[in-house]
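User: Can you predict the 3D structure for this chain?
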Amino acid sequence: MESAAGAVVEVTKCVSTPIGKYWKYHNGIYENMDTLKQRLEELNCRKRDIESRLNIELIPGGTMLKNEVELWLGRIEKINVEIKTIEEKVEKVKFFSRASLGRNVIQRTEEVKELHKSGEFPNSLVISLPKHGDVLPTTALGAGETTFKRKMEEIWSCLMNDEVTKIGVYGMGGIGKTTALEHINNLLLERKEKFDNVIWVTVSKDSNKINLQDKIARMLSLDITKYEDEIIRAAELLAGFDKKKRYVLILDDLWESCSLKDVGIPEPTRQNGCKLVVTTRSLDVCLSMSCKAIPMRLLSEDEALNLFLDVVQDRSLLSSPKFDEIVKAVVQECAGLPLAVVTIAGSLKGVVDFNEWEIALEDLRECTKGSASDQIFEKLKFSYDRLNDKKLQDCILYCALYPEDHQIDRNFLVELLIVEGVVEERKTRQSEIKQGQVMLNKLVNVCLLNDTTGSWGRKYVKMHDLVRDMALQITSGSPRFLVKAGLRLKSVSDEENWSDVAKVSFINNDIVDIPSSVEPPKCPNLSTLLLSNSHLKSISNNFFLHMKCLKVLDLSYNYGLQNLPESISDLVCLTALLLRSCESLQFVPSLAKLKDLRMLDLNKSGINEVPHGMKMLVKLRYLDFNTRHLKMIPARILCNLTNLQYLLLNGDHYKAPKVRGEELVNLRKLETFEGVLYDVRSFNTYVRSIEQQTLTSYVLQLGFNGTSTWRPVGKLVYLMNCDISESVAAGGEFPLLLPNDIEYLSLQRCYTGVSNLCKLASFKNVTKLRHCRIIDCREIEHVFSYSPYIFPLLRSLEYLELSGLLSFRGLFLRDRERRASSSPLPPGTFSSLKRLQLWCCNKVTEVFVNISFPPNLEELVLYDCSELREIISITSESDDEDQNEEGSVHHAMNIITLPNLRKVSVARLPKLESLPLVADSLQEIDLWDLPKLKRIPLLDRESRPSSLQRVSIHQDLWESLEWDHPNAKVQYLRQSRQ
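Assistant: Here is the predicted structure, written as structure tokens:
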């Protein structure tokens, strides 16, 4: 019974509160508490989404969490604790205390709503850590290239010499200046004792001061584009360099000397410990910039021969007297120039016909006429001519449309080569893509293109600037190419004669506007116009007036482009219209006349409705509608596009246009599809039709009113924020059909109507499932059942993530009539499982019950499961399930050895008693908030695993641990102090 004093206090508090609000707080406390818990659940769902994004965005040593995100996550942790306390008080609240506590509930509800709103974080959650530099792709150094290696040693010696602050490496094009510095760059990054940072800037022939400043700014992660004054820009760069401490700045391919002060580069001195290295074709550039000049030398005959044989990959040629003589004669024609040796050797790789070698030698000897530069051109053209394949030659010439030193995305280049007809039409799109990649591989193999790898492993190709110069010289004839790429031009000149031009490239320029005052170019032969990434905001309507034969128009990455001229509607020969990332573009004129169009790319454009005339594009094969604002796709459009092979309809995750399965059934040629299906019925309709299509990859989505960064490549079904319970209630053996060849399955925030995943969807013929994610599905109690058709699936599963499953009790539904132990799983179950994540599942007590631990597990993450006692347990057949609240009797487990386990992260498991694992390949272990854990066999060993890189254990846990090998604890303590 409450004391009188307590009652008086509560009543006094309420005197100043309007009586209506008082009764609202008082009478509505339980209803408001339910609302608060619902809002908190939504907030925690968003928190888990953020944490999932962090798993992708956080790169060890590369990025760090933003302060605002860290603060937000901390506030959520705090408010969860506070609301838990409030919930306990509400359950025990006395009558006179309700109003005060009820007001607290409403206040906390508003706080939770505000936290949910502030946690949208549309941009990245992390910031990039300062990089020491970029590791550059390099070619292997041949064993005999002693001249080249001696020059590298000379450059390195100068870098290590405090008296030398500026170094100039000079020599003719193709002699190996850049290659040498690429190796030096990587060597500096390996040995960080002398320099903190290495900054590589490719200058190129057409650079001016503004362009050079922009390139340096990008490498310093600065934005100076808002400044027009060169002095202010230079000051910003100086400040940026100051933060780099001791650095080496490499300016590659500098054609003219420049004033460091005017550009914004601090003068390197012995005191600041900085160095400047330039590569140039001119000794004068080195001398005028007061550099220590180091000339690159031509290879000796023996060195050139060794390099040649390394590329040809056939040293047995020298064993035959006649081949020995002709090979040496061919190498002699290369005149010791490394680029010539490599490209000519590439063109002769695999040639075993002696007559062909003789003809090649005759052709090479014809290249010795004219100046040195002419000879270099002719020798490179020799490799081009020897391709003997017009398609491969066209591919090389097409690459020359890109700016100098540009990394060309392999996949997108192949798409363009397909629509340009360089890749011949084949039965399937995948076959054409493979053919395009084979062509690029051949050009890399003969050393006319170089392979490079960008961030996230993306593949690119790149041309040596001399090879590009050779290609441009070829295209200066007929049919002529007009290439103004990467020159930072401010306008399209109307003085240029386009009358005989076949292809025009203005990629990477600063052309904001093409006004009506510009005379429409007369170009009856123009087939390709590339204007991507040129800062365009407007184009006059008459600009395309005389481009009647135009086939490919690329306006991609012009973020400010707002309108397209109506005259595009009259480009009846157009086969490709590319408007990718034109974010300000909201309207596309009628496409009704463009009946030859095969590729339409509107990815991340700003359009909000389907262009008029879409249903007339019956030849369309590639359609990307992955747009942010598209509201809907009218009926009877997609079903007319029966030649479609590639279709993306994802849209923004919150506003993706939904499509009915009936619209897709007749797209029999479809090979790649991503889209949101209208409802379960539409989803099942389309899944039934998949067997009649040739899909090689798909993303089938249902619901999707949220965000996710989980987007693997393959065959994916993604259900998010959808209610499947109505379909369950409607009857049927399985409410949801799954494609037989599904590889990835994700359920997030779905109302399922069933407690077991195997009752929701048919897995009968599913044997290739690799990844399974179930997040925030409150009804799911078990994932699998003891059914024979499940076993093949479990042998292929590689990744299992279960998160926020409030009702989850175990992986398998246990049969009360037939004991789980009497239904053992067959050998090989979970044999492919590499990664297991279990987050926020508060009813599960054991992970694996009567199941062998996954033998090939590589990563184990267990987090915030309040009832989890054991990772693996054995249940006896005679155990009575009603004997105790856990429903099983636990037995002591032997230590389990996992040969491939690399990472263990276990936290916030208040009842976890054992972690009986040992792994020789362990690299990382994180343990905290495990009050009942006393031993860690992973660490308690006579010798520390050689692979172990990081140990993170909360201090309280560390102090409470018991050790069988006391020396193990000592060695970890010693390591932590170093």
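Confidence is low (pLDDT under 50) at residues 1-26, 816-822, 876-893. Residues 339-473 form one domain.
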